[in-house]
Amino acid sequence: MAQKPAAETAEIKISFAGTEAAAAAGALVLDPDRGRRRRLHFWERLDGRPASGPAATPPALPLLERGVVLRLRRDTSANGGAAEADLTVKLRPCPALPRRWQTADRGKHWEYAVEEDLTGPAYQAVTAASLRIELSPAEARRAEHSPVRRTLTGRQHQLLEHAGVTGDDLRGLTALGPVDTVKWELRWSEVAEPVAVEEWTTRTNLRFLELSVRTGADAAADVQAQLARALLARNVPLPQFGQTKTRAVLIALAACP
Question: In a 10 Å sphere around its CB, with 0-12 CB exposed, 13-18 middle and 19+ buried, how is residue 119 labelled?
Fold first, then answer.
């Protein structure tokens, strides 16, 4: 019987955009040379070019509106570690799924995760499921210029089908990117778990910064309060509005593909 998976882990996120992102990065004194650099591409269906100008209607993003994100990621500088790459199918919010997709699982070169996403300042819990497959950096570079349906594995196609996304839905998609990222892992005394800080930039000068902490679902409320206090202690005011960086970047990239 299909039902929505129950998450045992949670990811608390606080995102900043534009000048807020620049101010937060400056206050946190982030050293680009100490971060892990990666390059991202996403896929969406763009059936028409959006109108331009300040009053333009945001572009339609049919996959995203159905809660589907297709993301390719590869290291461009692993900061001393081995270079890695992966392709992820993410369902957010996660629909009802068959029993085999109810709990987290992993195998050789793949990982399936179910967790609660909580994005500040509202922190409304949204259950997300993601299936990540490992690629070699060379495979990822080729995939950046290939139809994504050819790179997705059979397991990923199955998960998409359970979300109502068929092979026909994956034809004619547009690759959006690149998005260049730098990621740091910080240890703050006020927060019980490591704090991941990730900066996303595009060639059109868009800039986003997100702080995130993974913890058990039962500890999410305590950790989000810890993260908020830690930011205020570092002179980083919380954003007035919350939006995941993936949504914000996809909207921006689709407006000028």
Answer: buried
Over the stretch 163-181, which tens digit does the pLDDT of each residue have? 999 999 999 999 999 999 9
pLDDT digits (tens, 9 = 90+) for 73-99: 999 986 667 889 999 999 999 999 999
DSSP annotation of 99: G
Q: Indicate whether 109 pLDDT > 80.
A: yes
Q: Are 40 and 182 in contact (CB under 8 A)?
A: no
Structural domain spans, the chain: 9-41+59-255
Is pTM beyond 0.85? Reply is yes
What is the CATH architecture assignment of 9-41+59-255? Beta Barrel (2.40)
Query: What letter represents residue 102's amino acid?
Result: Q
Is there a contact between 76 and 68 (Cβ–Cβ < 8 Å)?
no
